[in-house]
């Protein structure tokens, strides 16, 4: 039983390491933010999740008692990684696309990130000190 647990724990750690390396490599080498978008989110959810699952398994099999800390960390990462991807995508849209370059939305709907009625800053207008 312990030998099977050791093999499973080792496999989870290796899987986590591979996803971490691939995610880091993708974050550095991919050309723009929209293609880089998947590297940190996938590495975080799959890589760190595998390492934490290995830690949970080790504490259940070889430790004196199980630990809930790893479960809370896994939950936190699974909730925040998609939000990270969303923020990277929205920042890329704001920094590099104009409203007319975006694909058209459904009828009677609009993009929440870039609206056509958003006023562009005018260089000739001066703000009064408040």
Automatic annotation (TrEMBL):
Keywords: Membrane, Transmembrane, Transmembrane helix
Segments of skewed composition (Basic and acidic residues): 117-130
Coiled coil: none
UniProt superkingdom: Bacteria
TM helices/strands, residue ranges: 6-28, 40-62, 68-89
Region span, Disordered: 106-130
One of the record's GO molecular function terms: sodium:proton antiporter activity
NCBIfam families attached to this UniProt entry: CPA3_mnhG_phaG, PRK12674.1-5
Protein name: Na+/H+ antiporter subunit G
Species per Swiss-Prot/TrEMBL record: Paracoccus tegillarcae
